[in-house]
Amino acid sequence: MKTKTFRSALALSLCVSFLFLTSCEELEDIIPSGKDKTKTYYGPSVSVGEGAARAWVKLKKDGKPAAIGMNVSAEAVESLTEQPDKVFSLPLPEQAELTPFKTITLDWNSMGHPEVYFVPHFDIHFYMISDAERAEIAGGPQEHTAAFEENYMPASYSSGVFAVPNMGVHWEDLSEPQHHEGDFTRTFIYGANNNEVIFYEPMVAVSYLQELEPDDLRKMSVPQAPKVQKSGYYPLAYTIKLNSGTGDYSVALTDLQYRKAE
């Protein structure tokens, strides 16, 4: 009991002392308080509108990844509502190497895009390829094999068979409300290029973010494909949250579990 009290007092003291250097939430990561506590490693802060964003990865005590995601400040979200479309690259810390993901982009879509996503929203791409490889993806029609669809895409997903330049082909979950006369609020996309899965992508409407209450954690399952092409730690779920301590939004791939390539 004394140890727990001392740890809490130490964390509070450090939080006050370093108020302008870091957040209490980060200090809590630095001082683990339980056997399952994780530690968060951050990539560099990137200017986004009048705010900022940064990528991060959470590791368990054994060094295995538990979650990977990004935080974007409320100031960034609010300021972008009056700005044109833009892509922000968020470098990952080196501790993300056990995941299949190499970089994250935060894509701002001021007017949305076809077919059922015509509302202001963010696309958060977790890429499994480098920025240089992504830049080489040409736009236009792109076929896929039946074996690729059967093995590496969830059963409820369908492809537009069209590659977006510098992104790839987007595969959508046809069971989601926006495909059945409902509104788009958030969804999960798979991305591919020439029969290779290259990104995981939560998409989130700005209106959905703005409806969140502080510390209101929304957790959704990630539809699973039968197999993966690269060994690594993959998400079973994704989360969206407004953090009360920092006032920023987080979008993360969580419940990471190891899957062997087949």
Quick recap:
The protein has 262 residues and is of the alpha+beta class. Helix content is 18%, strand content 38%.
Which short descriptors sum up this protein?
262 residues, alpha+beta, 8-stranded antiparallel β-sheet, 7-stranded antiparallel β-sheet, disordered N terminus
Termini separation (Å)? Answer: 48 Å
Reported for the largest beta sheet, the result is: 8 strands, antiparallel
Q: What's the helical proportion of residues?
A: 10-25%
Structural class: alpha+beta
Low-confidence stretches: 1-34
The tally of structural domains comes to 2
Number of strands: 17
- In round numbers, the mean pLDDT is 88
The backbone outline, from C-alpha atoms, is globular
Q: What is the N-to-C succession of helices and strands? A: HHEEEEHEEEHEHEEEEHEEEEE
The fraction of residues assigned to DSSP E strands is: 35-45%
Radius of gyration over C-alpha positions, nearest whole angstrom: 19 Å
The helix count comes to 6
- What topology, given as strand order, has the largest sheet? 5-6-7-12-11-10-9-8
